[in-house]
Amino acid sequence: MKEINTAPFNQCVECNEIINNPICSECLAKKMRTVIRQYNPKLAVNIIGMRMPGETKCLFCKEEMGLCAHCFTKDIHEELREKDPGFAEVFWSRFDWGIRDYN
Fold this sequence. Notes:
Elements: H1 25-39, H2 41-44, E1 56-57, E2 64-65, H3 69-83, H4 85-94
Antiparallel strand pairs: 1-2
Helix pairs in contact: 3-4
């Protein structure tokens, strides 16, 4: 029996996986800035979310979203790793969406 994807429009635009942690990048960026500001206020100002349309609704703001928390977190981690590798590991420990094997 062929498995049918019943939620094609609930997929992340970057990784094509189903969005199962529906927190938009803007709400997630706000949480990330709070944590990052404690360690390095200069890095915190560069953390901005982006409105990405999609069929999934954010749990917090109820806006449409199309980028999953996993992909957004990886993008921010890459940016932090370039600017402050030591802090990037602290960040990873706080926002680990089960993707620690990502390098």
